[in-house]
Amino acid sequence: MEKHFFAEPHPALDKLSIILLVHLPDHLQVGMAGTVKSDFEVIRRNKVYEEVARQIERLILKKLRPGDKLPSERELAELLGVSRSSIRDAIRSLELVGLVEPRQGAGTVVRDVSAASFINPLSNALVHKRQLVNELLDFRKMLEPPLAARAATHASAEEIAEMEEILERQGEKLRQGEAAMEEDSEFHYSVAMAAENSVVLKVLDILMDLLRDTRERSLQVEGRPQKSLAGHRRILAAIKKRDAEAAKAAMRRHIEDVEEIVLNKL
Fold first, then answer.
1. Do the beta carbons of residue 49 and residue 112 sit within 8 Å?
2. pLDDT by residue (tens digit) across 37-70?
3. What are the residue ranges spanned by the domains of the chain?
4. pLDDT per residue over 14-43, tens digit each?
5. Angle at 236 between CA 230 and CA 240, to 5 degrees
6. Nearby residues of 147 by Cβ (< 8 Å), 6 or more positions away
7. CATH 3.30.70.890 fits 15-113, yes or no
8. Integer Cα distance of 245 and 200 in angstroms
9. What letter would DSSP give residue 7?
């Protein structure tokens, strides 16, 4: 008997169910109308593509088979309530770990999910991540030392007092056994603000966000938070002396210390 999904829509078949039934393979269509919606949730996290990837991965591992086709970018974006760029980023991340692959004329399909298929993609992903973090830290070395030098010649008494207050809070948190990541970031922002360039602040904000996960892990390394505070104090001492070259050198040394710890963690 021929199936008609669109002629007389059944109350149980909402837009989500209809789209998925059109694209799901035959072995999944029976009985999926009432249950498929439970496989997806509305996305509400900041890193949207990661949550999108998690939900698609869950569907792949639980219900799809090698060779099955995923819905299109547009349809997934509608189903999950996110942008198509978030869908593309999620698909790329799943390609990277070997869960899906693009096929000419067929769209994105599920790969054979075996242990062997994960080894090389995961290895490549780790290498790629290490390279990305290395490049981001290298960019920090290009950006922040000159900012510290500029702060040494431009910082007001109020801005210097704010830096001192941040470091006092950072020291107090460390004495209580906390990592003080918020104060760690805040100090770098305060130096950038003292350099009096709003564009740099936006660039630094993006940079810190890209390094957030790595910085969180590195601050768990024994001695790393204390080393960070010591570096901050050297930078502030140079700024207070209005010594631009010393501030520049102190910031560079601080980032190099961080770089050594972070890359050893990857």
1. no
2. 556 655 454 478 888 988 998 888 788 888 899 9
3. 15-113, 122-265
4. 444 444 444 555 555 545 444 455 566 554
5. 145
6. 191, 192, 195, 197, 200, 251
7. no
8. 20
9. S
- Decide: 20 and 71 in contact? Cβ < 8 Å: yes
Using CB atoms within 10 Å of the CB of residue 99, give its burial: 0 to 12 exposed, 13 to 18 middle, 19+ buried. Answer: buried
User: Residues 6 or more apart from 37 whose CB is under 8 A from it?
Assistant: 14, 16, 17
pTM more than 0.85: no
What superfamily in CATH does domain 122-265 come from? GntR ligand-binding domain-like (1.20.120.530)
Place of tokens 């760690």: 184
How far apart, in whole angstroms, are the C-alpha atoms of residue 129 and residue 21? 37
Tokens 């290895």 belong to: 123
Tally of residues, the chain: 266
